[in-house]
Amino acid sequence: MYPIQRNRRLRSSESIRQMVREHHLRPQDFIVPLFVIEGHNTKEQIPSMPGYFRMTLDLLTDEVNELWNLGLRSVLIFVKVPDAKKDNKGTEALNPEGLMQQAVQTIKSITPNMVVMTDVALDPYSNYGHDGIVENGKILNDETVAVLGEMALSHAQAGADIVAPSDMMDGRIGHIRQRLEDENFPDTGIMSYSAKYASSFYGPFRDALDSAPGFGDKKTYQMDFANRFDALTESEKDIAEGADILMVKPGIAYLDIVYELSQKLPIPIAVYQVSGEYAMLKAAAEKGWLDYENVMLEQLIAFKRSGARLIASYFAKEAVSLIQ
Ligand code: PBG
User: Fold this and answer.
1) Fold assignment, 27-323
2) Residue 229 pLDDT exceeds 90
């Protein structure tokens, strides 16, 4: 007998496909990474990230207004620090008039309802290009955590809604939460990069910020990409220490981790589609080897399907323009 169930029935027209479609992209799903530089009226294209720019504070005004008008509701700020301001302890990271602090204030003054997230890690400020303080070739954990606590506090004082520690030191979420509570910032959120892998997909980002490690690699703090167990234990600890949102990073190669965390853990999971992922698609599209827009949307939907509630992506602006 002929099959009673024919799966193709629900695929037979665009209307019926729309009716049974499970996942959608909305502007509010995205977190837009922004790269900020010192100076005036300057917008520089990042060579390994075609179509993506670093910009000065004055140019942020137009950019953030445009994002807001597209329905985007959150940005994640990174700053490029001149070499002269880098040292081993991230001193400049605590400067209340530093570039990050000014960027937060600028964005909040233009678009007060934009959720402003800040990167908390020492690498852009480190003369070694590492996420922590270096001593005898090692990355010190607890000494770094102490600085990260003050850095997060300084971002909160500047007006950040959510601080996003991307450093992978042990115990930093608990310490940051405590510092925020102590200093009366109980409403400042923490988005923890809880499952951040030691990945070679971060190359273009390190070009963007001139933050590549000066020696060695980041494998003593970022996770071994051959492992799953770490993702779960790191994330459970971060929830216990006070994280509000967890992040998996990179994206497409780690959908199993996104799925597992979103199934098992009771708080929103974000995923970071990182610079190398952006660069790969741009490069393939430049060669005419892939359908740029459709591959982009397919990857973004894959994040939603695997359970991500939020997506940090360099495609955010283009994707939102396409879906509207
Ligand atoms: C550093 C940081 C990195 C990224 C975000 N925060 C790079 C790294 O860990 O070396 C990568 C983002 C991207 O590749 O898009 N704390």
Assistant:
1) TIM Barrel (3.20.20)
2) yes
